[in-house]
Amino acid sequence: MNDLLRAEGAQLSLAHAKFVKAISYAKVKTVKVDALTLAQLLRIGMIPEAHKISDELRDVRDTLRTRLHLVEKHTSAINSVHRVLEKFNVDDIVLLPELFRLQADRHIERAELITRQIKTIDQTLNGRLLDSEDVQRLLWIPGIGRLNAFAIYLEVDGMDRFERVKNFHSYCRLVPGASNSGGKTCHSSSKAGNRYLNMAFSLAATRAIHRR
User: Fold this and answer.
1) DSSP letters for 27-70
2) I need a surface site. Which of 65, 144, 160, 169 has the fewest CB within 10 A?
3) How far is 167 from 187, CA to CA, in rounded Å?
4) pLDDT tens per residue, range 109-154
5) β-pair partners for 184
6) Sign of the torsion formed by the C-alpha atoms of 195, 200, 201 and 206
7) What is the pLDDT of residue 188?
8) Alpha-carbon gap, residue 122 to 58, rounded angstroms
9) CA of residue 29 relative to chain centroid, distance
10) By the 8 A CB rule, do 154 and 125 touch?
11) CA count, 13 A, side-chain hemisphere, 127
């Protein structure tokens, strides 16, 4: 939709869904009512905008996110093999009964296929991102490896869009949320922000500590 409308010369604003509360609180919710409400909010300058990634990085960022999903599926396949082995308290699939060995073999085949897919994505991303000056700067930071550098570079999409450092920290989910009531303050993890940056910085911190 974004590409179609921009090609027609339309000016687009990406509304931040979490903060457009006038729609979520409406008693009647239909496409027509929502569209009218958004139009009225936009007219009076009350639409809180969310960031749209730059066109030149969108496809690369989405490819890196696809890699993460593949890694999760690979882990799931390997865990499935271990669960089958645990059922019979053995450490080799050749010791499994026939049908359970069949299940384990399929999980292993799936993991091997995903591994090849991940390597293909890695080769493509290396060619596009590894020589970037911003990526090379990130690689000098202790704990940040190649993939973490890619993730941070793509998900941040330019530091100039953050007014203050604390806005960036909040976007990365690096600070807890706070709830004040009756003179008491409760802190808890917040899901507002970018989960991919949170993963990247959390992993980088862990690696940096291990290498001290």
Assistant:
1) SS--HHHHHHHHHHHHHTT--PBPP---HHHHHHHHHHHHHHHH
2) 160
3) 18
4) 999 999 999 999 999 999 999 999 999 999 999 999 999 999 999 9
5) 181
6) positive
7) 66
8) 17
9) 29
10) no
11) 5
Give the closest residue to 78 by CA, choosing from 115, 130, 51, 45: 115
Q: Which residues contact 81 (CB under 8 A, 6 or more apart)?
A: 93, 104, 107, 108, 111
Per DSSP, what are the bridge partners of residue 185? Answer: 180
- Do the Cβ atoms of 104 and 95 come closer than 8 Å? no
Q: Over the chain (212 residues), what is each successive 10-residue block's mean pLDDT?
A: 88 82 74 86 86 91 97 97 97 96 97 98 96 95 95 94 91 80 69 89 91 76
Instruction: Please give the pLDDT value at position 101.
Output: 97
- The single-letter code of the amino acid at 45 is G
Determine the pLDDT at residue 96: 97
CA-to-CA distance for 70 and 66, rounded, in angstroms?
Answer: 6
Angle at 140 between CA 138 and CA 143, to 5 degrees: 80
Give me the residues paired with residue 186 across strands: 179
Q: Is 89 left (phi over 0), alpha (psi -120 to 50) or beta?
A: left
Look up the pTM and report it: 0.82
